[in-house]
Amino acid sequence: MADKENLENEIKENVETEKEEPKENKHKEMVPKQDYDELDDRYKRILAEFENFKKRSAKEREGLYNSILADVIEVILPVVDNLENAAKVETKDESYKQGVELVLKQFKDVLKSKGIEEIKAIGETFDPSMHEAVSSVQDDEKGEKEIVQEYRKGYKIGNRVIRHSMVVVAN
What we know:
This protein is an alpha+beta fold. It contains 4 helices and 6 strands; from the N terminus they run ααααββββββ. A hairpin with a 2-residue loop joins strand 4 and strand 5 (160-163).
């Protein structure tokens, strides 16, 4: 029993002594300043590398997402083209035409919500990175390399072209 009391008293004394002595001093004495500076520098470099890695990874994920989305949308675009053509056709059944127009609008809304944009063509200057020229015409009223007709709409996501516009270019 006495041993137990002695042990408890000794533990209490050690705890009280540790409270009085600041712990920081013990650690500073153990690690020389030069080593501490090297470790601090190394820590900062690793932290900076990790932040760069996170940014790079996020950018790669976004690029991969856009690439996959573009591949899926490219397959759907002919359906949108056919719906646009169906909406242009004259018909006696107005409710049928309205149904086609509603489906077309829904498709276009989905494309827009995913960041897909139509490439502007008619009246714009021909840009080979956005447009594909299928023919040219001479027209003195139009400017040089001005697009006068569009055979097929082009689409892009961000700066990436999913499908080039098929156009007729003047002059």
